[in-house]
Amino acid sequence: MIPTEKWIINTICSKRSLCFPVILFLFTILPFLSRGDDGYRLWLKYDKITDTAYYRVCQQHLQSFTIVGSSKTLEAAAKEIKKGLGGMLATDIKEVSFRDGQLILTKYKDLPVRLKKQFRQDNSSHEEGYFIRDIEEKGKRKIFIVGQEDIGVLYGTFHFLRTVQTRGRLEGLSIRNAPKVQWRMLNHWDNLNRTVERGYAGLSIWKWDELPNKIDERYVDYARANSSIGINAVAVNNVNASPNILTQEYLEKLAALTEVFRPYGIRLFISINFASPKALSGLPTADPFEPEVQRWWDNKVDEIYSIIPDFAGFLVKANSEGQPGPQDYGRSHVDGANVLARSLARHNGILIWRAFVYENKGNDRVKDPYDEFVSLDGQFLPNVFVQTKNGPLDFQPREPYSPLFGALPSTPQMMEFQITQEYTGFSTHLVYLAKLYKEVLDSDTYTDGQHAPVAQIVDGTLQGQSMTGMAGVSNIGDVQNWTGHPFAQANWYTFGRLAWDHELSSKQIAKEWIEMTLTHEPKAVETIMAIMESSYEHMVNYMMPLGLTVLSSGGHHYGPQPWQRAGFHNANKDGIGYNRTSTGSNAVAQYTEPLRRKFEQVETCPESLLLWFHHVPWSYHMRSGRTLWEELCFKYNDGVDGVRQMQQQWRAIHHQIDTATFEQVDRLLAEQEDEAVWWRDACLEYFSQISKLAIPTEYEAPRYKEEDLKKKEKQSQNLKHYSVARPYVMPQKTN
Ligand code: BDP
After folding, report:
1. Whose CA is nearest to atom 3 of ligand 1?
2. Could you read off the pLDDT of 627-676 as tens digits, one per residue?
3. Domains of the chain as residue ranges with CATH
4. Using CA positions, which residue lies closest to atom 12 of ligand 1?
5. 629: which of 219, 348, 435, 618 fits an S-S bond (Cβ 3.0–4.6 Å)?
6. In angstroms, what CA-CA distances link 530 with 23, 197, 506, 596?
7. Band of the pLDDT at 5, cuts 50, 70, 90?
8. How crowded is the C-beta side of 59, counted as CA atoms within 13 Å?
């Protein structure tokens, strides 16, 4: 039990002479002592093990370690062991000789011959792979963490620490692991002025003005956290990219970051602006067919590699939402991508070209990525990835998977998920996104007429792609706990874990994260798991149920504004929804059979996507027996009830949670409840006016009436702390 401030003061005051100086001292330090967990350590908490039986086992077997070989990566592994086990056992972990070590960290090739033989079956040929084995050697128990390369040793170390953090059994430990996807990547949408596009957790963690001279400790902890979940690449700046990232000044800053990333196996990408040759060197054009443009990129790429020898490559948003691109010169995406890819290939660099393109020509924009890219399949150079958002529209709460997955058999395709919650509640709402990621990865594409989940296209097993990757748009900022909402950390965590192994279940990942981050008390773990597992569907229900999309405000996307979004929901007095069948935009034709037929028929279309594919009469009979209008009312109210249930569940376990964290989440859940009600009231009020149908009386009366909604809408326009898009605007040339 931690003594309260009052108790301490009373006790001391009973000894008069001590009273004044001690009180003065306590007032100075108490605010720091009682602050609680600030969330900075993320899931790498390493607090002392309180389960005495487990503690004893660890104390007996994990007092000392040996590291075979030397490199910065192995040093990082040793540091992590000392920090991790040192924290959990509350003791110093000693580095000792091979003979005495209880825990051995080594590469396979550095093992003595007899052990190499013994472990032959376990060895993974994957360069990032590792195995962990508990064996008895000459009467002593030893745990081996063995990597194919140094980075495998580090990944194995994090896996081992996770095992202890989640109180896994050590006896007979036998683990063999390697990632399923090659590039597991975070994409930061961080601007060079430190604002973060769609970031809700403060400013960018990259302090460009201090770099390259000052290395913030946070960079190291960022690298540790990423490495612990297997992330091996980051693009540090916004896809709406400033050309300045390519100046020598910034390249030097970037080089300093790579020094921090390298030991942790993290490779650097940057987002570039396609018109950089014009903006930086005054070339008259950025036309990819102009030899001087190719030369410019060659020189720039050479310069980058002379400063950052293991530079990974470029990420490019071109001809999308006002960004410059090859189409400005009548060239195709292939033409644009290949000019950059050619320069990068000379150094084994990679180009990631985004498929998020749409023209705003009044057509159904969800068709654009497929229409633009399918005909280009097979024409990109081998070092080009096409990066495709999970759905065909834009990170909405629920979309069908993007039909580009499966449709580019000769092009490596990188999945792009959003971790930051642009359309899913900012950093105010508790929404566990593993559910969304899994739903997409598990979607059957029926490519080539066979069962083929999106995951098998992403990991290359179905179409034999040589490069594979998964990217997540980061939710990280410079606030103390990195992500704003403490549960938003779980989305960063889950993204990394799924990118490493998409077969893990959302439950499994949630359990790990909870035990590493919040509590080990079984009842509380169960309850939090239930909260997390249900949270995604609640959010879909109170924001955009039944396949509705983009009902959020324009610009900042905070809060509901369905009255401004008619083009997305098409509600009128007869019905609601976007007709994407053959009688409408025919986007359904982009899916293979039997999906096409399934989506085309209103009777067979999954109700969760009904209004994505169909315009449906308000009186349509749903499977529940309700009419569509009644179902909509039910869903919105159900979503709100879901949040209230999460509040109750959370309150029921407050004794098992650190006080500061408990209170923060409790406050946020109250805000989430209010915003869920706001969403429900705004959407139902508006759709009720359009459909001329009343909200059934069985539901609670709205909290927000029309005039309140207007007020809220106005207020939200002025919310400064909600980050908004600040695309880079090309400077006007004056001469
Ligand atoms: C949209 C965001 C916008 C991004 C864009 C993108 O609103 O800020 O720039 O996606 O992915 O969802 O490029």
Report:
1. 725
2. 999 999 999 999 999 999 999 999 999 999 999 999 999 999 999 999 99
3. 1-34 (no CATH), 52-177 (3.30.379.10), 183-508 (3.20.20.80), 538-578+615-717 (3.90.1330.10)
4. 394
5. 618
6. 44, 31, 11, 34
7. very low
8. 12
